[in-house]
Amino acid sequence: MSLAIDALLLERADGVRLLGPLTLSVAPGERLGLVGESGSGKSLLVQALFGVLPPGVRQAGGSISAFGIPMERPGTARDRIRGARMAWVPQDPLQALNPLLTLAEQLALLPSVHRKEPAPATLARLIPLLARLGLPTEVGFLRRFPHQISGGQRQRLCLAMALSCDPDLLMLDEPTTALDPLAQKAFLDLVLELQRERKLGFLWITHDLGLASRACDRLLVLYGGEPMEAGPTARLLSAPGHPYTARLLTAAWRQPSTESGYLPAPQDRPTGCPFAPRCPEGLGACATWSPWTGTPWDGLRCERPLEPGPRP
Ligand SMILES: Nc1ncnc2c1ncn2[C@@H]1O[C@H](COP(=O)(O)OP(=O)(O)O)[C@@H](O)[C@H]1O
Ligand SMILES: [Mg+2]
Fold it and tell me: What is the pTM of this model?
């Protein structure tokens, strides 16, 4: 497995649960989509994967391994993987880029650490990729600083940096949020093309089920920091079992990303199914009890799953 997460639990310092227990895996070359509303713990997951959880959040249980190496344990084994075999395209490029370094200097960073490659050699090697990503390749452009280029260019620069050491696995954390729909589609097509060519595996994290279903073979739907349903994309789209997945589907097709704003705060989440207070199918039991049924890659957590069949 490229990535194996087992019963991962992330908590606030005061013991309030933020994410999990979460189990998922990404096989070599596989495209997994992690779908959840804003505040469901998606970015924390990526931070946990890279061992950079923010202060105030801790891993309270479970394990994360990438290419067989435990990612919670600091050390050279982990450092060799981060940024090299496993790379990250961040949600907010402006925050992820160093404002004091030119574009050329940013691009040279990871290869200099992981391959001891001199900057000029890195740039020469990456020029075709930059061109392919639609970025200007002349020296004048590469001498600019992050704030001197457009949001779309910053996003593509981050993708180029993530690909700079030929990773096997890519984490994409809402990489298209800052882009308009046309640029979003172009970015998606580009990542899929690179994925096929380089046999990349990826974890595409998004609040947009429509986008995830175009990008991924398999989907995992989160609500309130907990997995609600997982399965092959085609099955989830044609026969969602969880009422929350069904609801996301209607939202995705009508108008993406209108589902936010209802998520209870982490400290206010019910003990049973977190979706129970909003669920049209809800039973009394859902508030206290809802076990996961099926396998971690094809199953759901619901007391009253929907019958397969056509939906409005
Ligand atoms: N440093 C922190 N300390 C305490 N709580 C945090 C911290 N960072 C994020 N959270 C909380 O964790 C939850 C998940 O956050 P996040 O992973 O950013 O969600 P998403 O990326 O899905 O929008 C939110 O409720 C957020 O308030
Ligand atoms: Mg986020």
Answer: 0.92
Of the listed ligands, the closest to the CA of 19 is: 1
**β-strands 69-70, 86-89 pairing:** unpaired
Are 175 and 296 within one domain? Answer: yes
**238 and 288 together in one domain:** yes
**Ligand 2 centre distance from Cα of residue 169 (Å):** 19
- The mean predicted confidence, pLDDT, of the chain is 91
Pick from 215, 173, 155: which is nearest to 44 by CA?
Answer: 173
The two structure tokens encoding residue 8: 């991962």
145 and 80 within one domain: no
Q: Are 37 and 223 in contact (CB under 8 A)?
A: yes
Assigned domain for 309 exists: no
Q: Which range of residues forms the domain containing residue 118?
A: 99-163
pLDDT band of residue 252 (cuts 50, 70, 90) is low
Separation of 267 CA from ligand 1 center, angstroms?
12
Residues 148 and 187 in one domain: no
C-alpha 267 – ligand 2 centre gap (Å): 18
Same domain, 35 and 178: yes
Same domain (yes/no): 187, 68 = yes
- For position 107, what pLDDT does the model report? 97
3-state secondary structure at position 189? helix
Specify the pairing of strand 298-301 against strand 226-232. antiparallel
User: Across-strand partners of 205?
Assistant: 34, 173
Ligand 1 lined by 54 (C-beta under 6 Å): yes
Does residue 40's CB lie within 6 angstroms of at least one atom of ligand 1?
yes
State the Rg of the chain over Cα.
Answer: 20
Q: Whose C-alpha lies nearest to ligand 1, atom 27?
A: 39
What is the reported pLDDT for 49? 93
Q: Residue 310: inside a domain, yes or no?
A: no
Residues in Cβ contact with 160 at an 8 Å cutoff, skipping those fewer than 6 apart: 107, 126, 129, 130, 133, 135
- Which atom from ligand 1 is nearest to the alpha carbon of 91? 21
